[in-house]
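Before relying on records like the one below, remember that each one covers exactly one chain. Contacts with other chains, cofactors or solvent are not represented anywhere in the record.
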Amino acid sequence: MLSLKFALLCAFAVAAMAAAASPAVAANPVVVMDTNQGTIEIELYADKSPVTVKNFLDYVADKHYDGTIFHRVIEDFMIQGGGFEPGMKQKKVKAAIKNESGNGVSNARGAIAMARTSDLDSATSQFFINTVDNERLDEAKYCAFGKVVKGLDVVDKIRKVKTGNAEGFQNVPTEDVVIKSVTVKK
C-alpha cells in the first residue's frame, strides 16, 4: 500500500513539474470597439493568425483606429473601416503584412478580416466585418482573423445605414459611423 501511495505522489509531482515547465497558453485577446452606434467586442485568433493579430493590435496600441470611420458599408456583404477619418481623409499606415488566409477561419457572418488590394500581401490597417456568410472570400484568400463575440446587433445597425458616393468613393455612409476607440479588453 505504501508503494502505491509513493507511486501516486511521484506521478502527481511529475505532472505538476511538467505543467510548471510548459508555458501558459494565453487566451485569444478581445478588443472593444466603441462606435457612435454602440460597442462591438471582437475575439482575435492569435493562435491561427499571429502576424495579422499582432499587426491589428499594434494599430490598436498606436490608437490608429480612434476617430476613424466605417467608410464602406454594403448591407448584405460587409462593413469596412480602419483607414479613413471623417471627410474621407486617409490615414498613414505601416508596411503591409503577409497574408495568413487558409488558417481555418472562415469569412462567416461576424468574422473580422483584413481588407487588401489585389496583391495578396497588401493588408495594412483596414479591416472589415462580414455581415453575411462570405465563404467566397476564403477562396479569394481574404484573411479572417477573429469574430464578433458581442455587439453583432451594432454591426447590423451599421450595415443598415444610408450610403452614397463621397470623395470619389461608393457605399460611404451619408452620416459618419465613427470608431471612437479600440482597446484591448482586460
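The helical segments are 2-21, 50-61, 136-139, 152-159.
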